[in-house]
Amino acid sequence: MWFKIMDITAVTSIGGKGTRIESISYGKPKGLLEINGKTVIYKIAEQIALCGIKKLFLLRGYKSELFDNEIIKIENQLDLEITSYIEKEPLGECGALWEIRNQINSKDVLFVLGDIVFDVDLQRFIDFHERLDSQFSLITHITSHPEDSDLIRATNGTQISDFKFKNQEKNNSFRGFLGNAGISLFNTEILDLIKSDSNIKNKTVFRNLAYEFFKLFKRIYSYNTSEYIKDIGTPERLKKVIEDDKNNQIKEKNYKFKQKCLFLDRDNTLIKCTKGNYILDPNDIQIKKDKISKIINLRK
Length: 300
Hints:
Blueprint: E1 8-13, H1 22-25, E2 34-35, E3 38-39, H2 40-50, E4 55-60, H3 68-77, E5 81-86, E6 108-113, E7 116-119, H4 122-131, E8 136-142, E9 151-153, E10 162-164, E11 178-187, H5 190-193, H6 205-217, E12 221-224, E13 228-231, H7 235-246, H8 292-299
Parallel strand pairs: 1-4, 1-6, 4-5, 8-12
Antiparallel strand pairs: 2-3, 6-11, 7-13, 8-11, 9-10, 9-11
């Protein structure tokens, strides 16, 4: 298979303890939990290697020595050169990015959270990033748990206009449903532009890199996809991912395969609207509630 030469370094953070899932992980790091015979970190590495990226940095922390054998296995089976940075103290999701900055020589960084399982056409995402001449792009998706998610709004479809953090107090003016999927692509020089704040212990790409860049330049893009991306942060989510993988529901959502699409009319299909009138005020919207159950069935 022919690959475009990628001027991209992949970085994955696998240092978290996974306290919410310890009832079934029994102290094992989340990245080493298995999805039908493959560890989470192996499945992430597979996706990275498939799009032609050759270099992967692993930001390691909690029980980092347990990853050694899995890393050897990945390097032997996948076309990836893996470098590890082991944190002496927890630096949060992305705090170690500034520690390895001088070792990243590529134009861009593909950052992937270490507790997600996904099957995404990453080449399409990279093409989107390059086509828009973007310095910072986030993969987003409609979240099934907005109350426990970082959210964005992209009012024109791609350019992000607002952020909301999962630990932030409810903001009644925020009407967002696109969740941060945990995969981002950004220009390496942003790490020089935005300095690491030593007072912030739990740094995240979404809040301490993407949002800080947004405040400076307001030009950051959302790549919204319906492809499969789920975190395994709770026992229920892990069980669902294992079930979906068994049923081949993860792979089939990749945009390399044809997808089903349903187009719905709005006026007098989804909302009530008198013939000849237009809905100009949000307060005039009346949902045709009898249609909701039908749409739910179509979605299934």
